[in-house]
Amino acid sequence: MTRVATMLLLELAVQAANYDATKAVVDGVEVVRLADASHRTEVSIAASIGNIAYEMKVNGKNILFVPFHTLGEFKDQPTLAGNPLLAPWANRIDQLAYYANGKKYLLNSELNNLVFLYKGGIPNHGLVAFSPDWKIAKLGADSRSAWTTSRLEYWKYPELMAQFPFAHTLEMTYRLVGGVLEVATTIENNSAEPMPVAIGYHTYYQLDDAPREQWKVHVPAKDQLTVSKQLLPTGESRPMDLADPLTLADVHLDDLFAGLIRGTDGRAEFSVQGEKQKISVYYGPKYTAAVVYAPRGRSFICFEPMAAITNAFNLAHSGAYKELQSIPPGGQWRESFWIAPSGF
Question: Other C-beta atoms within 10 Å of 193: how many?
Fold first, then answer.
């Protein structure tokens, strides 16, 4: 073997050793860990708690906000934290009913699987945010990345089908590449009718090199949608007039944006920056709307990629919303967003 070939094999071995994907049990909960040694980044995912990534540690610092002390505590009393999926709809519906394909479907609060009921009994955040029914389908690492894929066969569960009767399969892949985490979602429509798509993620981010009041936020949007006291779109919008960057001192954000401004790659970059630390979140093209949530007095910010605006099912039925995406029978919907930390 030549010296050049030997050096190449050694280089490949080092690259392969850089990435790792393993299973572990923490507080009785099975966890997948993805590691990128060269970027000192490790991601931990709990499939049995909504397939939520609850840690993305960079140089030992978790950039995902979590309010619990142990994973067992989180499983016993789940709450929104880390990277929860909101499906089959993100955020609120204006009543315990929604329209799809011209038909009205009723939601049954007595099934106790609505994630939250907002003020006045409005259903909020879908059905699967904390689902224990995700199954790990793939786990691996090579010289380029570490990844895990989990599946939720939604159609198997009568209590879910009773609320949203479109048979489908959800697949979520976390892939760690070069210190950047891709969250890829695939929805396969197993039903005989078109399936509307209004999913989103409610990801919580944190910095620790500056107080929250000094964080600087970038929102790449042309339009800010007007919402009611219940945070439902009124059908009106205005040009986005937030400062760029926006400093969070004395600012409360719980705002809905559309008309996302994208780069040549089709992605829209949201970001929050402290003194040196920065988290950028890139939305793929099928995430057409965003909520930015940064409440006063809390040391986190949420950039929420959404496939549709809040209350999209009912607004589309009324003709007030024209951008609702749909999956044909037997078809698939796929999109990703990317979490890119720097300065940690």
Answer: 16
Residue 114 contacts residue 162 (beta carbons within 8 Å): no
Of 57, 48, 73, 72, nearest to 129 by C-alpha is 48
pLDDT in the model for residue 202: 98
Rounded Cα gap, residues 154 and 158, in angstroms:
9
What is the DSSP track for 248-271?
-TT--EEEEEEEE---TTS-EEEE
Averaged pLDDT for residues 42-65? 97
- The alpha-helical segments, DSSP class H, found in 71-134 are 71-76
Q: Which fold has domain 18-342?
A: Beta-galactosidase; Chain A, domain 5 (2.70.98)
* Beta carbons of 152 and 137 less than 8 angstroms apart: no
| pLDDT at 2 > cutoff 70 | no
Q: Cα 55–285–268 angle (5° rounding)?
A: 65
Q: Domain residue spans in the chain? A: 18-342
Q: Which two tokens stand for residue 301?
A: 């910010």
Average pLDDT of the residues in 91-113: 96
Residues sharing a CB contact under 8 Å with residue 21, sequence separation 6 or more, in sequence order: 32, 33, 34, 35, 139, 140, 141, 146, 147, 148
| pLDDT value, residue 150 | 98
Would you say the pTM of this structure is higher than 0.90?
yes
Q: Tell me which H or E stretch contains 226.
A: strand 221-227
Residue 163 one-letter amino acid: Q
Given a cut of 90, whether residue 174 has pLDDT beyond it is yes
Q: What's the pLDDT band for 336 if we cut at 50, 70, 90?
A: very high
CA–CA separation, 315 vs 196, rounded Å?
12
Q: What is the pLDDT of residue 16?
A: 58
246 three-state secondary structure: strand
